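[09:14] KT: can someone run the structure on this one? pasting the chain below
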Amino acid sequence: MKELRREIPIFFTIDDNYAPFLAVALRSLVRHASCERTYRAIVLHQGLNEENIIKLKSLETDNVKIELLPMRENFLKLEDRIENRLRCDYFTLTIYFRLFIPEMFVEYDKGIYIDSDVVLTTDISKLYDIDLGDNYIGACPDYSISTTPEIVDYTIRAVGVKKGEYINSGVLLMNLKKMRDEGFEKHFLDLLNTYHFDSIAPDQDYLNAICNGKILYLDQRWNSMPNYDLEPFSDTFLVHYNLFKKPWCYSGVQYEDVFWLNALECPYYNKLLDLRESYTEEKKQNDEKCFRMLMDRGQEIIDKDITFSKLHESGVRIRL
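[09:31] RB: done, structure tokens below
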């Protein structure tokens, strides 16, 4: 019984703009939480205003605690410790947050990271209780891109991961102790600082390249993502509105019903409705343009001299 009552840490990271979507995720977490378990939602944020802090904290319950930690303080510590070794042209340090969880939260041997654009449809303790064995992480193959040949080609030829093995980093069951013991953070930073890999999904590509061979592939229902080329799941565990098809931007999105069911019970419901109503055709066309640019950029990276795949094949230690 003591084991069952162990606190379950769930990590998020947001800014003010994403507070309404996180609220929906937190509401779904609370909705399905077992009264026999204790949950700690740890939200690292960039300058949340007081109104958002109050609204998010209002979702807290007796057994689902919500802790809001300013990201700046944590990442200043990291920057000091790693001596400014993170120098990226297009992404700030925060894009890599999930990769630092093992060293930032040494009190936990195991934890969950999930993006904020998700809705749970079952108790997250079921994910936490999965045995990771000797693997670094548990995750699902990236279902949202599985029918996009250009991106699949990129994951194979640039990241060096076989088709069907490239995981989405929006839902991670993490073996924090093993990642610490095996020096995951140092290895990641060494690769980043030495090679400055160009990629279309920085944190996700590093996770795939480093952890491949030590990943437990989860039931895809733990990361159910809209994909209009495939039939939606009849039942899900967690819905992840990945890429551009967000229910607060578009109508008719796969799995949108569970989003609005939870949004209805959030303090941001009217704001979310307003966001969808104000999402113009120009914004939708820009989404399509961005996705095409993503595919084009992936093809450009394949031809570069330095890729995860090429260095791995040349004998450089990429896998941990």
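[09:33] KT: thanks! The chain is about 40% helix and 15% strand.
[09:34] RB: yep, looked fine to me
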